[in-house]
Amino acid sequence: MSTVNYTEIIFKIKEKYIKHTRVNEDGSVHFTLEMPVAEQVCPHCGASTRKSKGKRPREVKFGAIQHHTVTATYLQRRYKCKECNHTFIEKNPFVCRYLRLSKTNMEYLFRQLGEKESYTEMAKRSDVSVSTVIRYCSKLAIPKPVQLPTVLGIDEYKGNAEGHVYQVIITDLKNHSVVDILPKRDTRALIQYFKGFSKETRDQVKYIVMDMSPLFKLVMKTMFPHAHIVADRYHVCRLVDWALERVRKREQKRLVAHSRTLKYNRRVLMKNPNKLTESERVKLLEILRISDDLRRAYGLRLAFRKIFKIYSIPNIERYIQLWLKAVESSHLPEFSNFKTSFNNWFPQIVNAFVLPYSNGFTEGCNNNIKVLKRISYGLRHFERFRVRILLLSKKNSTSYLNS
């Protein structure tokens, strides 16, 4: 297929508008574009005219393809109205008035804002400066949502934007979408944000999934008194895993002769026993043989994991109470805080193993945010950061670009 046909497909330039094509030594392509004389409607009086008053050259950037830039000189025609004597420029499919960036290049640039790419990479692909990309990103404004989801997820992530270390992400866990991004993790700011929704809207929220954060718990109980709070299963299980890891570190320091065995086989303790290989089983038995405390801690971890096989609320409540008694009788200092934390979060922990909701989608969004931040070497401007996150979560939708 010829270059002209490729240009018509990619850049939406009809072949009849291309008067001249030049390929430079560096591989860049330059077109000369001109539209034929056609019937025009005067924007001042509405009369029709075909009287041309000359042409003015305009330089247009169409971006890059295969790492080669594509530019054009557009000979824009000017018309004169016979009725009111006003002059006006012709309508064209290439570029908007007063701009050098082509319409297709602008569309491509806005689509790139929904990808995990840095501003520098976007600028290279669109053949513009980094400041131009940032300026176009600043033009996008995504309003605050008017509705809240039935199953709401809330979590924090380390954004380092606008002078605040942590920002807050709110998600719809039922439809797997990001609802909004908040600038800071602050009790007053969160309450003020949710106060912006009517009581009827807040009452539509039935379930709230979060990690075991006292701050989030206080805010959600205040603003959503009728919603059921669910502690995220992953964070609950991670507390038990961390306690086992603290025991392993203590025993590694105490048992100097076996420190290498305890250090380099720590993942064996965290792996599902049913998925261990034969060599890993031997290593696990050796670890549990040399330390009584590790054996008790490992037993507590396995016992807690059995809660996934219990389905009724009374049985789960009874099992957690029995597990807490086993923790107390183990006399392991690393597990001593479970009685307090589990009692403070007892209904929420029970909900975690009864209800089918978790913050897995939210954690996945946080991972995408970390990738975006790492590729961009940090994004300090919160509003642009928020727009990039929301576009990234909805990159298959053009609803925001059309607004």
Helix content: 40-55%
Output the number of helix runs.
Answer: 17
Q: Terminal Cα separation, in Å?
A: 36 Å
Series of H and E elements? HEEEEEEEHHHEEEHHEHEHHHHHHHHHH
Percent in strands: 15-25%
Count of DSSP strands: 12
Overall pLDDT level: 91
Overall number of domains:
3
Shape: elongated
Flag low-confidence runs: 396-403
Indicate the radius of gyration in whole angstroms. 31 Å
Largest sheet: 5 strands, mixed
Derived structural class:
alpha/beta
Could you explain the architecture of this structure?
The chain is an alpha/beta fold and 403 residues long. It folds into three domains: 3-139, no CATH class; 151-232 and 358-393, Nucleotidyltransferase, domain 5, CATH 3.30.420.10; 233-354. Helix content is 45%, strand content 20%. It is built from 17 helices and twelve strands. It has helices at residues 3-10, 103-112, 119-126, 130-139, 187-195, 199-203, 214-223, 233-254, 259-264, 266-270, 278-290, 292-305, 313-330, 338-344, 346-354, 360-375, 382-393; strands spanning 18-23, 29-34, 40-41, 48-49, 52-65, 68-80, 87-89, 151-161, 164-172, 177-182, 207-210, 228-231. The strands form three sheets. Strands 1, 2, 5, 6 and 7 form a five-stranded mixed beta sheet that branches. Strands 10-9-8-11-12 form a five-stranded mixed beta sheet, with helices on both faces. Helix 3 crosses helix 4 (130-139). The two termini are 36 Å apart. The model is unreliable at 396-403 (pLDDT under 50).
